[in-house]
Amino acid sequence: xxxxxxxxxxxxxxxxxxxNVHAPDREMALMFAQIQHAxxxxxxxxxxxxxxxxxxxxxxxxAFGGTTNKAYRxxxxxxxxxxxxxxxxSESEQAEAExxxxxx
Length: 104
Fold this sequence. Notes:
This is Putative enzyme of phenylacetate metabolism. InterPro entries: PaaB (IPR009359), PaaB_sf (IPR038693). It comes from Halococcus saccharolyticus DSM 5350. By secondary structure, the chain is of the alpha+beta class. The protein folds into 2 domains: about 1-55, Phenylacetic acid degradation B (Ubiquitin-like (UB roll), Roll); about 70-100. It contains 2 helices and 3 strands, in the order E-E-H-E-H. A 3-stranded antiparallel sheet has the order 2-1-3. Strand 1 (about 1-10) and strand 2 (about 15-20) form a beta hairpin. The longest helix is centred in the C-terminal third of the chain and has 17 residues, at about 85-100.
């Protein structure tokens, strides 16, 4: 049986997937996970879960955040004359972020 292993480096951080182990039961999976994934790196805790219990929902199956137009949050949405220095800085940051995302 394959068990997926998630590791937390420091208290309060997220657990991240670090690999898997092959083991007949949970107890052996925990032991193998400690040996293979926590021995050399600083580790606060491990999660071990059966591989068949892990499911995925990707963007083609569900609408995640970001689908709503939230242009009102940016200073570029408003026509204010003359443009304040902070607004100009915000506009250039927004344009740069859009270029990085490939929107323009």
